[in-house]
Design brief:
- With about 240 residues, the chain is of the alpha+beta class.
- It has a single domain, classed as Glutaredoxin.
- It contains six helices and eleven strands.
- It has a four-stranded antiparallel beta sheet with strand order 2-1-10-11, with helices on one face.
- It is globular and about 50 Å long.
Length: about 240
């Protein structure tokens, strides 16, 4: 909510205004809220509300990813994983990753972690280059993981499509079980204006936008990450 310093707009790096070079505001998503996050602990949490129920039957496909240890099949550790799909060309992704790096240190546990995966780089990208992008974004504490799926079978193509008639978009965050089952999916990056409260009809200034961070570092973001860490959601077992 804007009144709480959480800007009511979600920025995406894949949907860009014509010739402007600027991310555009995504339209409201009528998809029902993710049932797994519709719990008393997250009542009124607008960031949790941004996660929608995934389409029936949608699961994480079998893909190969490259890590520092080499290329192998993508597997998930026990518990819950916040799978964050990103690309070097997606500015909102880079802003979000820097905040994820901070929150990973606080909320990572044996039952929960944040896993960023570089997908759809628009050109071949070496592992060292992907690593350098993370470090430049201030997200060097996160693991470097690159989607090495061929052609149209990337995670970007299979998981980041908002609808049959709509293009894929990033950032795309997915709440995934250790079996690869999707519990929730969100698009775009809700911005947090560092607690600044805007009046009715008031728009954030350029200075506010420049200093804004992703909502993952807001009080609501912290509450959601804490709930995920503790498994206080449906389907966490």
């Amino acid at each position: 909510m804007i009144g709480r310093g959480l800007a009511a707009l979600a920025m995406t790096g894949a949907a860009r205004a014509e010739n402007s070079g600027q991310p555009r505001v995504l339209p409201p998503d009528p998809t029902p809220r993710a049932a797994a996050l519709d719990t008393p602990a997250l009542h009124g949490n607008s960031l949790a509300f941004s996660f929608k129920q995934p389409p029936t039957g949608l699961t994480v496909p079998e893909v190969n990813v490259e890590r520092a240890s080499g290329v192998r099949a993508l597997k998930f550790e026990p518990g819950l994983t916040l799978l964050s799909l990103w690309a070097p060309w997606c500015a909102p992704c880079l802003r979000e990753l820097a905040d994820f790096a901070v929150q990973q240190r606080i909320y990572e546990s044996k039952r929960f972690r944040i896993l960023p995966v570089l997908t759809s780089p628009r050109r071949d990208i070496a592992f060292a280059e992907g690593r350098a992008v993370l470090e430049k974004a201030g997200a060097g504490a996160l693991p470097t993981v690159i989607d090495r799926s061929p052609g149209s079978s990337t995670l970007f193509d299979t998981l980041a499509r908002r609808g049959a008639s709509m293009p894929s978009s990033l950032p795309c965050n997915l709440l995934v079980t250790d079996q690869g089952r999707l519990l929730g999916r969100s698009f775009g990056t809700p911005l947090w204006l560092n607690g600044v409260k805007l009046g009715p009809g008031e728009k954030p200034t350029p200075e506010m936008m420049a200093a804004a961070r992703s909502s993952w570092v807001s009080p609501q973001g912290q509450a959601l990450l804490s709930a995920l860490q503790r498994g206080e959601i449906a389907g966490a077992a």
